Amino acid sequence: MTEITDRLNEFTAPVSMKAGVKGLVDADITQVPRIFHFPSSALSNNNGPSDISGLNLTVPIIDLGDIIKDHDDNTAARNVVVSKIKEASETWGFFQVINHGVPLTVLEEIKQGVRRFHEEDPEVKKQYTSPTGFNNQKFIYSHNFDLNDSSPLNWRDTFICFLAPDPPNPDEIPLACRDAMIEYSKHVMEFGAFLFQLLSEALSLESEMLKKMDCLKGLFMACNYYPPCPQPDLTLGINKHTDNSFLTLLLQDQIGGLQVLHQDYWVDVPPIPGALVVNIGDFMQLITNDKFSSVEHRVRANRDGPRISVACFFSSSLFPNPTVYGPIKELLSDENPAKYREITIPEYTAGYLANSFDGKSYLSNYRI
């Protein structure tokens, strides 16, 4: 109990833990509490060689403008895009897409909706917390404080909403972000179906293969709020991790801070107005037998803010899903045998969450 007491004693009135990280900032703190401090090794920007000037450290940007309206009518352009997605998924695990067809007004409204909720009165937000974890709630607000955990805390507040296959009733979503979330999720599901077609083709599989495997079946959204940080060199918005998903679609605002680990170097994923960030998740790496890479990424804290991001994860998470996933048989051969054992998503997710953000890829536990 001593350690927990010490962590509690870092906070004095008027700072309220119940108001999350935003509550700390609203109390005009000038120093980041010790429980948010990360070791210097976790904050380092370069794990590799000191001279990286000769490396091409630019996250790929893929223009979908030539194929987004006529999915099947421009074969040559589609083949070019599929080739770029294949290369990005194999070498980076990340890419940005522009001219993707999701209206800019929809992108702006979801960012504003997320901000409206996080800037609500703490008593309003408290109604959506869950003291016992997920507990089958469809909408959960988390103010990030777990004083029983000795790990450093991330400099963010977040809420999660489970949207598919069993969507919440509209009145389960707070009014501040309700319409924006419902509208954005429709576009995400439609665009996600198109992305899974392109990824199937990038694997030289039939276009609907990944959809038939129910990769598109589950969707949950994590909406993050990163308040301005008085000492951004001491903490992180999110510690390094890989994603518990087949695919993640991220909308970020213009403040920046997202980084991907590439060739042992943390590379910025610069905000591009109207762009969406796509990254490969753990389940996609598993079913593609390491052909596509789920890579570590993190978010740096920033003096500017608040930073808003909306991450949509194609995964059923802890909700019931009996489907067993393993490497796709069409991708295997005598020269390329299965590298992972089969698993269900809820089983994987339970272990992933128990070990989440510990700096290690949980997927390695399932390698044969």
UniProtKB/TrEMBL annotation:
Annotated keywords: Iron, Metal-binding, Oxidoreductase
Name of protein: Fe2OG dioxygenase domain-containing protein
Highest taxon of source: Eukaryota
Cofactor field: Fe cation
Residue ranges constituting the Fe2OG dioxygenase domain according to the UniProt record: 211-316
One of the Pfam families matching this protein, by short name: DIOX_N
Ranges in coiled-coil conformation: none
Family assignment from sequence similarity: Belongs to the iron/ascorbate-dependent oxidoreductase family.
Single GO MF annotation: dioxygenase activity
